[in-house]
Specification:
Length: 187
């Protein structure tokens, strides 16, 4: 796990940008925790809805209810899980199987990574990405919203899936090119 010892360090500005983006996702984790706590407290106190609005608001609808808090939790979890994945991969901070990596030369490590990309990541993305594009489009066409006074405009959260997968696909291509160059230079 962690960074490959043979990998060149990122310039300082890249590290700062990565850290700021990941800090923004950390704020979303705090918001998720707040939503969970608020939902538990309101449920225990039998408070529902929490707030009503005179007119329908985008995403929220006419009220913030226990169901909207539950929907918000799932939505935040999807954003927190999917969107920063490309950044973690690009920074080489993802998990790998150490026993395959330990004691290997930088060229062999690059080859293991490239094979892993081709065998696991590429097929997964090739299967999931085409289907993911229709997911938010269909929700938008049908005006899909959550049932029982949950959140509206579900196409917004469903758009996170193709965005996250597309970002992973771009990073897969960038990393595969980088690994191929590393393998060929070490011959």
């Amino acid at each position: 796990m962690g960074t490959s010892p043979d990998k060149r360090p990122n310039p300082a500005w890249q590290d700062r940008v990565r850290d700021r983006v990941l800090s923004a996702f950390a704020v979303l984790v705090l918001l998720l925790m707040l939503a969970v706590g608020l939902q538990v407290a309101c449920s225990a106190l039998d408070i529902n809805p929490l707030v009503r609005f005179q007119q329908e608001l985008p995403v929220l609808g006419r009220a913030i209810t226990l169901n909207s808090l539950l929907d918000l939790q799932w939505h935040l979890l999807a954003v927190i899980g999917l969107l920063p994945a490309w950044l973690v991969w690009l920074a080489d901070r993802h998990i790998r199987v150490d026993f395959l990596y330990a004691g290997r030369s930088p060229r062999t490590r690059a080859l293991i990574d490239l094979v892993g990309h081709a065998v696991f990541a590429a097929p997964f993305l090739l299967l999931c990405l085409p289907a993911a594009w229709d997911f938010p489009a269909r929700a938008f066409r049908f005006g899909e919203g959550s049932a029982n006074d949950g959140l509206n405009d579900l196409f917004l959260i469903k758009a996170v899936l193709p965005l996250g997968l597309a970002a992973l696909c771009v990073v897969l291509i960038i990393d595969s090119v980088r690994l191929t160059v590393r393998i060929w230079r070490r011959r």
